[in-house]
TrEMBL record:
It comes from Pseudomonas aestuarii. Residues 7-122, 150-268 form the VOC domain. InterPro entries: Catechol_2-3_dOase, Glyas_Bleomycin-R_OHBP_Dase, Glyas_Fos-R_dOase_dom, GlyoxalaseI/FosfomycinResist, VOC_core, Xdiol_ring_cleave_dOase_1/2, XylE-like_N. PROSITE patterns: EXTRADIOL_DIOXYGENAS (PS00082), VOC (PS51819). The lineage of its organism: Bacteria, Pseudomonadati, Pseudomonadota, Gammaproteobacteria, Pseudomonadales. This is Metapyrocatechase. It comes from the Bacteria. One of its GO terms (molecular function) is catechol 2,3-dioxygenase activity.
Amino acid sequence: MKKGVMRPGHVQLRVLDMAKALEHYVELLGLIEVDRDEQGRVYLKAWTETDKFSVVLREADEPGMDFMAFKVIDDACLSRLAGELQEFGCQVEELPAGELKDCGRRVQFTSPSGHRFELFAQKQVTGKWGLEEVNPEAWPRGLKGMRAVRFDHCLLYGDELDETLRLFTEVLGFTLAEQVLDGGTRIAQFLSLCMKAHDVAFILHPEKGRFHHASFFLETWEDVLRAADLISMTDTSIDIGPTRHGLTHGKTIYFFDPSGNRNEVFCGGDYHYPDHPVVTWTADQLGKAIFYHDRVLNERFLTVLT
């Protein structure tokens, strides 16, 4: 956190049909609807998250990600980073407090990979859903579906990975935790702010700004298996899993929302400290790196993007 960027804050996703999307994200994934705004956006959170929301859904004509946000330590840090982003060469736009409901002012910028990101310092704190701040129980009753614990990270596809890495490490303070190399070319990079395996990741792709998945953390392998059962019970479109990654070693399952946006739920995985050496996989082992058990990549995982 040497630059003051703390953690992922929220992601805004485009969906084709809000009613179907809410059935997926609330009833199946287990997020909690907390608010709506005049633009028709719906705000959701996972039960352990203390800020008001972590997922925003916007009805649109095509699916995908509008932006991913990271929370910084304070407003002075936000102003400093806005200047450093401009010095790096990013076009920076400031959005006023309240443009997202109960969120402070935000600084938006586009990475060299073509993805829209934003930073913010303030958001209404509502606490963990269904739990008291003093003497809290282990978990709240009434959780639905997969009982998602938190919004964890996004995987994004785009070009200019080297410049994107430089932006995230030199300006925003991320560290490179894991990578895939094809000869001298880095084709995948997993970036961390703290001790998580990653907070955002990028895969080399000729098209800028493509969205691969938003990921949500579950507590145990049994929870991942239960998620697989719920996917079958609801006839939800599945990509692959349950399985294990070689990269990060997390235990995972991938599936699609009704609009075609890919979701992941996972548990476990490696930890990373800034002084750890970068873990490297080579392109000839990419199948095993992504899907450790099958050791081959399925076509959907590489080509289905929003």
